[in-house]
Amino acid sequence: MVTRPLLTTESIILESQESARVQQGATVVLSISHFPGITFIPTPILPRKPRRQSILETLGTENENVENVPKQITPRSPEGLVITRRKESLLSVLRGEGFKTIRATRYETVIAMANMAIVNCQINGRNALNLKGFFLLKCPDLTPLAFQLIYLDLSFNDLRDFPMEILCLKNLQILKLRNNPIKVIPFEIQQIKFLRIFIIAFNLITDLPHGLFLLTHLEELDISYNDITSIPSEIQKLRSLEKLNIDGNELTSLPSAILKLNLTKISCENNFIHPSFWKENSLNSPQRLTQITSWFIVRNNLHKFYDAIPAKVQKLLKCTSKCEWCHGPKFGKGFRVIRSCDIFGASQLPVMFHVCSSSCYRNVKKSTYIPDVIPDKRIPLNLELREG
Ligand SMILES: [Zn+2]
């Protein structure tokens, strides 16, 4: 009963072949045992089909083939999708639509396999779970493994949102989310306190959250091939970080804070870091006169000589940032200057400095190394690269 539509399809093809052969005058004997097994037919579901598209297609097929089913279900969530597919598969079995049953139950089978893997992990007390390439739309419940899992691989799935189910894994050390359409890393990632290796390459990430920089045990971070445009200075908080891969993003420069890290390896290929980008990325507008005056007063401690300073002026003298070169006060945006460094095994990395004054700007331009970043660590600066 299940295979009826397939047999029909096969017989159509074979009939046309048969008629061609009959014309040649040959005798053809068809045997049912020679038909290919139905379970080996490649699935028509594309791995990266947008979810809304799948839902609409599922609904479309449903309306086409099952007229008697009331159309009250409009699934919006992955759960909704599964429910529809379950209903559909049951109805399909009753109606004998074999091919459709296979197509409709496929995702359920995948879910069942994922859950089996979790149960298997739980029963055998394993601490590694590999759900790579399941094309999962949603991460399964991982609470049964909350305290035992150390390694989790969810690469090559269809996860659109960062799987919050992971946050319950208190002892997780290695997390691989390579090749998923994830757009946002949540701030809550800081809850995975013991994370040492985090791979989220080939996703659609645009920003790095503050919470990521609170992972003090992080040794390896792979955020290559995303849509990241800048690396926050807070990256310097990752004191254990040894390997950083930022290939294939939209970075134009690196923050000077990166020089404070203790990396053994950095990879920064396929970004917008060619020297010809430097000029347009470090254009400076003139500083405001109030900013220059404030800087001069604070820098020379002149404000300490006056007993009374008007509130308005006091407000102006409050500086909010630090010069990345002299570590003194910086008012307003200051000046931006890019220099290239050979560091952490990479050459000509463009490092952006935000400095307080035109004198610091000149010092950065003139200097051949970076002083006092970390004692005993002198980072050589390259002279400006020739354009073109
Ligand atoms: Zn300065």
UniProtKB/TrEMBL annotation:
Keywords associated with the record: Leucine-rich repeat, Repeat
Cited PROSITE patterns: LRR (PS51450)
Keyword Repeat: yes
Gene3D superfamilies named among the record's database cross-references: Ribonuclease Inhibitor
Protein's UniProt name: Leucine-rich repeat-containing protein 63
